[in-house]
Fold these 3 entries.
Entry 1:
Amino acid sequence: MAAVDDLLKANERYLAGFPGPRPKNPSLKLTIITCMDSRLDLFGALGLNIGEAHLIRNAGGIPTDDVLRSLAISQRALGTEEVVLIHHTDCGMEGFDDTAFRAQLESETGRAPTWDVRGFDDVRDDVRRSVEIVRGCPWVPNRDKVRGFVFDVASARVEAVD
């Protein structure tokens, strides 16, 4: 497990300059919902610091039930007010066949997943759809401050989607 060992060594180096605990509530009162893709350095690309925003990540940055649960907690218990959805170019969920994936998992394990893995065909259309899902969620109190963006993995440019 060389990768894990490297992580632990990096943590030892990090501890030397660790500034101490930060407040639990994000100082920008912001939640970002985005993809788990390792190419997205949102702290660097958006100028964020630790403690300023919640980042909720999953495959595709899609507002699934679990993401909406986390967002409701973020707003109701931890004081966030704004939501940014950031999808990206060259995403593995673009063109993803949920039906085939679920059938493969069931065939291999004998159990059907209890969750969906919704893919999409157009990243900008999916951002719009995702924004509407968040705006329509009754458990999220601050639904008027929701915006969507696309992160270009080739240039790191973030563009608004209207």
Entry 2:
Amino acid sequence: MPGRRSWALEGIGSYGAGLAAFLDQAGEHVVEVCRPKRPSVRGGRKTDMIDAIRAAKEALASEHLIQPRLRGEREALRVLLATRHGAVLASTAAINQLRSLIVSASDDLRDELRKLKRPAQIARSAQLRDRPTQDIEHRMTARALRSTTQRIQALQAEAKELEDEMLALVREVALELLDLLGVGPITATQVLVSWSHPGRFRSEAAFASFAGVSPIPASSGLTNRHRLNRSGDQQLNRALHTISLIPMRLDPITKTYVARRVSEGKISRDAQRCLKRAICRQLFKILERSGRGTGTNSKDLVQAA
């Protein structure tokens, strides 16, 4: 804003939340910037001072600045989502460790477990016992398998419990999101965390740009081409990508829409980008209504494109 001091902060939704709240209470004007672009060349400079200058330049170059994210329900969803993500990563690491243990186990243990599918492997490994009649290698390997399996089961139960918490909160905040084909508690939570509150984005086009699904002109001469947008909130972009996969696979209307886009000369990736843009438009309308209305189905998503 001309004539007014502004603070451009990166990471307001996480590490910068405390500073943003402090500045807001002090009556300062705070805007949010996405992660500033850093040099792609190897050995590019990076310090806190350089990052601060890049954030300031990003804010000065932007025609429309983004309001900071709110706390409250949005922050509650964010911490649940981040904690579940950590549990899923730890569970994946434990599953990989279980596979390594099976590969290097003695012949009898390996033959018993390697042909089973993952859920059966986990269930069987949890039942292993180290009997005194067996040699030390067999007993310790069985104990390691059992311990790793117990960790996997605990982490998976934790992730499921956190997902149930998110589902209950999403139903209170924006039940209509769950009516869309392909939208589940995880993707709905990410959409709400990124959107934050009504009025944060000036339009659905700004929200699409923030999500990285707006087309970028890349034409020259007599061509009229666009390329994918690599900027914006990549977690939100990934959520939109996940949402688009379900109707592309299950909804006949969406299949017809994608086929029509491909027949127009677009590659499948560009056709999916158009679908993600339509999904983003409908999500924004639902969110700005703050739960009012009757919801949207996959047919509305395709017609909106």
Entry 3:
Amino acid sequence: MPYASLPVTYDPRARHVTFFSPALGISRSFSIYIPRDVDERRPAPALYLLRGHEREWINPFEDRSRDGRNVIDVYEEQRTAGRVGPLALVFPGTSSDDNRIPGMLVNMRAPHLANGATGIGSGRFADFFFHDLIPYVDRHFPVIPEGRARGIVGFSLGGAMALSVAARRPDLFACAGAYDGTFLYACDRGRRVRRRDRVIANPMFDAAYGVPRDLTFIAQHNAANLILRGDAAALARVVWVVAYGPESHEPWQSNYYRGEHLLECLRARGLANALENPVIPDGDHTWRTADRFIALTLPLYDRALRHESSKAPDRVERPR
């Protein structure tokens, strides 16, 4: 296969791939896991998993809560139990190389404000994702190159990005999930975002959103705004899967209120959450709970990606 493979650092079951991105003007990396029974004769649907750095979902020690496990272990356990079929798992890099500057999968307003962080290039992360990364994976790996066989899911900022890109391009994804997504609040029927949101003010977004903040640009890329103002029929073709920690864990270990707001936006457009109850009662903002969320929701993604129903799958039971 025509890709450059670097030494595996975090999990030997995943390949670490570096390729040149014309959009960014630099080389970027991602990791990909291909089950052993998937090949060019038997391609699989692809599930993209987002956070920031490409290592995070597959690093078993990304935080202390994980205790030596990662999302590949979660997938293989679900596969062994017969709950899911073959899936390719793709782990894109969506931040600077040191993971300090989030790309947010937007074409950055002020990439020069990344203060010399490497891995930013032109800052055109939306073009990188849509025009470079997805086509590269489709061409060089045994995945089914169709929007109805592609899903996306994320944790924290990764959850915000996952729902944002699915709402921007619902033709490219059959399902979109988020655990404890850092969603921004939509105002004025989706035309604006809340100006005083403490997340927007964080200096790590200077490169992505500009200084002073370009609030119109932010609203154009925020999941809640996109859902409120997007094409209802197109959005309805996506299976939406949203969960978050309990209200008692706000503000540092749960994005409960942001998740509730996102669900209000879905309901306003007649869109359902595929989870019966989005609150994981003992959930927190850790990789342990993010992995539990994937274990809970993988069957939903699998069903959507295999076109087993022309409608959203039956809702999953309340998380425990």
